[in-house]
Write a structure and sequence with these properties.
Layout lengths: L1 H13 L9 E17 L8 E3 L6 E8 L4 E8 L7 E7 L3 E10 L4 E11 L5 E8 L6 E6 L3 E15 L7 E12 L8 E10 L5 E15 L5 E15 L9 H28 L3
Length: 279
C-alpha cells in the first residue's frame, strides 16, 4: 500500500513539471577594433589604398516564424566598403536578429555586431543578422599604391548555443574575409575565417570561439595594383517544434488530474483488499 500511495504523490508532483522544454537557438558575434592600415615598404614612396565606393557596406536582419511564416526584413547601408551602417533589427516573440557596423576602419577602428535567436514557441523559426563588409556581401575593388602594404586587423568573439530540446535546433556565427587580385585569385590570395557552431542533434551545446585576425596584401611594384576585398560577418539561428509536444495548458491540467485520480483509485482498491483480508 505504501508503494501505491507513493505513486499517487509522484503523479501529483509530476504535474508541476513541464512535459517538454522549448527548443531555442542563439548566435552572436562581435568584431572589435577593426582597422585598415597602410605602410610603405620602400623609402620615398607614399603608402595609400582606395576602395571603390559602390553601394557600400550593408547590414541586414531577417526573421520569420509560424506556418505560414510571417517574415520581417530590415536593411541599412553605409557609403563605402567599411562604411558605417545604422543598426538593423528584426524582432518578434519567438525570433529576431540584429546587425550593425559602427566606426571608421581607417581611423579609430570599427566594430561589427550580429546576433540571432529562434524559439520553438514559433514553429520553424529563423533569425539571421548579416553585415557585408562590401556591397551586397560580395566584393569591393581596391587600388594599392606602389610599394604599399595593406593590413586588416581585428579581434573576434563568436558564440552559438542550443538547448538540445529538439534535434532541429541550429545556431551558427562566423566571419570570412578574403584579399585577392582583381580576378579573385593570384599569389596573394588570402582568406581567414572563424566559425562557432551548435546543433541540437547531440543535446544541449555551446561553442565560443575567439581570435585575433590579421590579413596583409602588398604591392611590390612601381605601378598601382588592383585587387578585391570580400567579407561578411553573420549570425544564424533556426529551430522547430521539440521532439516531445508540449500540451496546451488545459490539456495538461486534465492529464495531471487524470493521473492523480488513477493513482488514488489504486490506493483505495489496495486499502479495501487489505481490509477484507483481515480476520
Amino acid at each position: 500500500m505504501g508503494n501505491r500511495l507513493l505513486a499517487a504523490w509522484t503523479a501529483a508532483a509530476a504535474c508541476a513539471l513541464p512535459l517538454a522544454a522549448h527548443a531555442r537557438a542563439d548566435a552572436a558575434i562581435d568584431v572589435t577594433d577593426l582597422r585598415v592600415a597602410v605602410t610603405s615598404v620602400r623609402p620615398g614612396h607614399t603608402a595609400a589604398v582606395t576602395f571603390a565606393r559602390g553601394g557600400g557596406s550593408t547590414a541586414e536582419s531577417d526573421a520569420s516564424s509560424g506556418d505560414p511564416p510571417a517574415s520581417q526584413v530590415v536593411t541599412s547601408s553605409g557609403g563605402f566598403a567599411f562604411g558605417q551602417c545604422a543598426t538593423a533589427a528584426a524582432t518578434g516573440p519567438a525570433v529576431g536578429g540584429s546587425a550593425s557596423l559602427v566606426g571608421n576602419a581607417f581611423g579609430e577602428g570599427a566594430a561589427v555586431h550580429t546576433s540571432a535567436f529562434a524559439d520553438s514557441a514559433g514553429p520553424d523559426a529563423v533569425g539571421q543578422g548579416t553585415v557585408g563588409l562590401a556591397d551586397g556581401v560580395a566584393a569591393a575593388a581596391f587600388t594599392l599604391a606602389p610599394w604599399t602594404r595593406m593590413t586588416i586587423t581585428a579581434s573576434v568573439w563568436a558564440s552559438a548555443s542550443v538547448t538540445g530540446a529538439s534535434p532541429l535546433e541550429f545556431a551558427d556565427s562566423g566571419l570570412s574575409m578574403t584579399l585577392s587580385d582583381e580576378d579573385g585569385i593570384g599569389l596573394q590570395f588570402i582568406r581567414i575565417s572563424l566559425d562557432a557552431f551548435a546543433w541540437g542533434q547531440f543535446g544541449a551545446a555551446e561553442d565560443v570561439e575567439t581570435r585575433t585576425l590579421s590579413l596583409s596584401y602588398e604591392n611590390l611594384s612601381d605601378g598601382d595594383l588592383n585587387g578585391l576585398f570580400s567579407g561578411y560577418v553573420s549570425s544564424y539561428a533556426y529551430t522547430s517544434d521539440p521532439v516531445g509536444t508540449v500540451p496546451e495548458p488545459g490539456a495538461a491540467a486534465m492529464l495531471c488530474a487524470g493521473l492523480v485520480l488513477v493513482a488514488a483509485a489504486a490506493c483505495r482498491r489496495a486499502m479495501k483488499k487489505a481490509g477484507e483480508s483481515r480476520p
